[in-house]
Fold each of these.
Amino acid sequence: MAENNDQPIESFRRDLGLEAVQSAPVQNHGPASIGNQLKGFWVTFITMFKKVNTVQYPEEREGTAPRFHGRHQLNRHADGLEKCIGCELCAWACPADAIYVEGAENTEENRMSPGERYGKVYQINYLRCIFCGLCIEACPTRALTMTNEFELADNSRASLIYEKQDLLAPLRQGMLMPPHPMYPDMDDSNYYKGDVLGAHPSQEQP
Amino acid sequence: MTTEVVDMITLVIDGFEVSVPKGTLVIRAAEKLGIQIPRFCDHPLLDPVGACRQCLVDIEINGRAFPKPQASCTIPVEPGMIVKTQLTSAVAQKAQEGIMEFLLVNHPLDCPVCDKGGECPLQNQAMSTGRGESRFEGKKRLFDKPINISSQVLLDRERCVLCARCTRFSEQIASDPFITLNERGALQQVGIYENQPFESYFSGNTVQICPVGALTGASYRFQARPFDLVSTPSSCEHCASGCAQRTDVRRGKTLRRLAGDDPEVNEEWNCDKGRWAFKYVTALDRITNPLVRDASGELREASWPEAIAAAADGLKGNRVGVLVGGRATVEDAYGYSKFARVTLGTNDIDFRSRVSSDEEREFLASHVVGTSTTYRDIDRADHVLLVGFEPEEESPIVFLRMLKHVKKRALKVSAVATKLSIGNEKLGATFLSVAPGSEADAISKIELTAKSVILVGERACESAGALSAVAALAHRTGAKIGWVPRRAGEPGAIAAGAIGNLLPGGRPVSDPAARVDVATVWGVDSIPSAVGKNADEIFVAAKTGQLDALVVGGVDPLDSALSAEALSALDQTFVVSFEIRPSAVTARANVVFPVAAVTEKSGSFMNWEGRAREFDTAVEGSLHRSDVRILSMLADAMGKSISLNSVKSASKEFASLSKWDGARATFTPSTSKSLSVGNDEALLTSWRRLLDDGSLQDGEVNLAGTARKSVVVISQKRASALGVVDGDAVKVSNSQGSVTLPVLVENIHDDAVWMPRNSRGSHLLETLGTASGTLVKVGKA
């Protein structure tokens, strides 16, 4: 039987095109010497008295590295207007096709960002995202950055497609919820230069 | 055909020898070698202008070099020329980089928000032949942005590189010089004339040829990026010109349509209707499921098997008339044609859902189907005669082709019409003014040659005897006849035999050999031999009980000359409707089948030349089916199969029937009749404008914004008699109703009054029950 078994294996190797691959029989060296065995156990023994690296997650947490690639965030200007202009360059750069953006036009009544255009639909599919950060490099307005948040598990596929409201940065001190007009006497280039430092009372809408 | 002898000139570009015809521009000769010289202003269909200076190259002729780099888009080739492009000459490369830097000095850095971003020649060429970094540190020139130069075209002057493509297009191709370069120096900018909006039927082409994002379309603004879009070559469903198009779809929604490049047909242009009227497909009221009228008289949604059974029940064993409509593809029209003959056993079928006549039907059978007058014939014609046809409004690409030759070689155009239209003025047409109804007399007096072309519109049938006069004129002079209907499906429907006197391939119903031919292919014993009723007769027969049921494709009963009869016919009979959206027909139908719109199905149209214009499904995954598939299922349910279960099988079978070498149908000329016109009376004349209240233009507000205003046109004589001037309200009425519109005094026959047929405030067939040739009262409102 032993001789017969060789035949199918050989043909199997041939089918896979493995004929050219060199192989060598495994050599059995027998048991190691007592000295060598003790050397191995010594490593195990001494480790018992070393400081433990394991963290009892989720009860205990350690921070990530500062540049860790976590969940994305859509940032805001200092007065609360969105930085995203809906240009889709992030979607274009994405190697995993995880981002979907639709742009729309800002109007006087409905201004979401400085300038002419804002992102009306913004979705990131975290089932696809590989956290490579190419989208962040592509973003021309620094609207898209990555946070250090990494807990992105969920129990349904749909809930892992993050919508714009899930990704938008929270309003901080001095920010107003868009839509609202631009800072008085400033245009979009002032926003990009960082001239706007907070919301102006006149931007508040009834 | 004689081939012209062309002088070839040999020159050297970047060390490679190339021979091109005399007169070729250097930039074009380089293209032939696959060498791309960057350019913005150069366009193969526009005159050279040398405006952008981006295509600078080093040129040397017979050992004498030009002292400076030259614009290769303005210099024709010469024997012994040695050209060095940016690839081999450091001087040319530096010159091009310098020009690019100059162009970018004032170009804003707003690529991320610009609609052109990603498909922008400026972006691409700045990357390929520009300097890596800008040295400019000053302030960029700023303009207000964007400004609406019409409701559908937006202008962003900051982005403009002053290539003058748009202004040259408007002047040289469309003859709508509403857009021009204003100011000089750094402030030079594209602008529109004051008080004169950029209302051109061809304005969309300027958006397409703009090499930067200076001109953008309002309806595509901020909609997508090129990488979002799936592009499908397609064919325009709006008129019989037959433009090649490109349909761009994202996630099942058509976002834009562009003119395709077909030198034989539309060159690289199309009209604004073809470009922007596609929202009817995604209208919210689309019918998505079959509807069946239940016992209580309400239409309710039903399953496909239930609807098919209900339709089969109502049609089986009954006398049925079939109305196809002028929007069906060739395959669908063929399906209706076969369904009528095989399943329903009748020739009562007509595709003409409009004012029509029996004279026209005979004319189509004897002089149109199977003939081939083409755009090439217009190119070669010595004289083009227009009869019942307004090319700019009814077939814009035919208009552009004639205009091209009017400008290039002063092609003679004559129009037999009641009113001198804006389009015919642009064509410099000889206006042969006639009263509505007396076209025939004028036509019979015209002299043509064998090189002339007579372009006949669908409205020629509205004047009795006009088509007979055209046939006689063509016979007498040898001129070619081209029949140019408005609707895209009409030429294909004649070829498919969706009319009472013809079988597929132009076979006369009355010819026994033709019937045997078709019966053999269809595998049936016989084809009904009696010539079928026309559309008007079908409505009348249905109203008077001679028909029990109607199968209706995309037909608006209000387009018919007998709209009142049509509506009561639909009320009284069992109606099976094939529609995409609710209409006057579906409101009266017993069974409604939802069908696919053009972007959702494959198929083909036949343009006025008889050229097949095939298209593929642009919106993948649509659940809607083509008419022919539903007809095939219905025929199966009725026990008389037509076996056309796909568009492909329909087109294959139609192709096997498309040639007929037997005798053509005969034509019996008819005579005209004239009406006497009283003092306060006038003969009504009208046509549909390109942009009007047509149902395929629904939902396009930007497009509707450039439609021409509705007016009543009367002659100077009548205006003086009524005591009105331009802008005064005038009332046109008859026993059925009245229309009041501002008046416009123009060059129109004294006996006639003109109004748009289906524009805002002027729906003639609906309000007056007539659209042309009848007496109406004209008075001050």
Amino acid sequence: MAGLELLSDQGFRLDGRRPHELRKIQCKMGVFKQADGSAYIEQGNTKALATVYGPHEVTGSRSKIEHDKVLINCQYSMATFSTGERRSRSKGDRKSQEMQLHLKKTFEAAILTQLYPRSQIDIYVQILQADGGNYSACVNAATLAIIDAGIPMKDFVCASTAGFVSDTPIVDISYLEESQGGPELVVALLPKSDQIVEFQVNSRLHLDNFENVLDMAVKGCKDIHAVLSRAVKENVSELASHMNKT
Amino acid sequence: MAETICIPGERLGSVDHYKAGEGTYVRHGFIFSNLAGYKRTTPVDDGEIPELTVVSRKQSSVIPEVRSVVTVKSTHKFCSCAILGVEGKSLRETFRGMIRREDIRATEKDKVEVYKSFRPGDIVLARVLSLGDARSYLLTTAENELGVVLAQSEAGVNLVPISWCEMICPKTHVKELRKVAKVQPDYIQTT
């Protein structure tokens, strides 16, 4: 690989992490008052904001109404200042449309959609700063926002990425590691039931190594679940103590 | 008793020992939480199995279902209305509903005239008949207990019901025609 050594001889990555280490996660639930649910997450330098509205009556085209389940509407956008180069992005470009579709499929698998027929849930996510793993940051932020909104879900959805550098699988890859052209696995998982809801491989990966890399990504998801569930529990008890005071 | 916090996907117990209540779902014979909140078990008599529920801080949102009683506000001359609440729970946002002319009352359906039953602004109790077409829920008031519960006269005063089809204005003593609901005494809140 030209110039950059993604994994040093001592087994450290460019940002000083070990191969199995996640970036630091910080999250906050209920950041907006006017939305039904909202959350903010930082995974290293990747920052995402999610808001959830609903369930409410279907807006726009009536033909979209589903008679046996709720309609999930996702919107993904990136802030103009989110990347190294400032660029204004049109809302409906190909990349974000693809992302919206992925997010929609992911949450259709996790939300108990049959509870709210003929209604709609809106999920809006925005990337404030992009540093690799945009999809996973969006999924994790949206999960927190949905929980904040009190929408019934089968389980958390946790997403993570994994790469493969010099015969070692590495988890939660950053933009620098992503842009070197190595293989990248994106996995969204229901951690309690071990079900994969979204799976994506970019670039080629030898089948012999596949299992190891997948295991690493799944482990990343479970680690994220541990962090998120602690945050949710703290949030619930904090709100309860607020309610007791008033 | 210390309350246990549970999160979506957490296993709470088996269906052999508990009944799945609100905020939970059943999978492979076990009860799981689907909300973030506190676990509650309802105490029951001997021999029955207790019900497990998860209580969230946010009121779980309801949507109108077939056969549920809804509170609606009539918005238009032609029986279209906004659904405000379902079974005593208020909705965060209104849903559109429609009461067809034939569904206003149970007898003499062909003699019904809409303007003699509802006026815009009336608060009406109705039952969801079907999920209707794509546009709106179909509602009915063809029961004694269903119909107008609150209405204002042209003078802007709350009308007082005098029979099942008439209401009187206490200020001007003008009688107005409405399909009046016979509200069940246990629902009336005396202040």
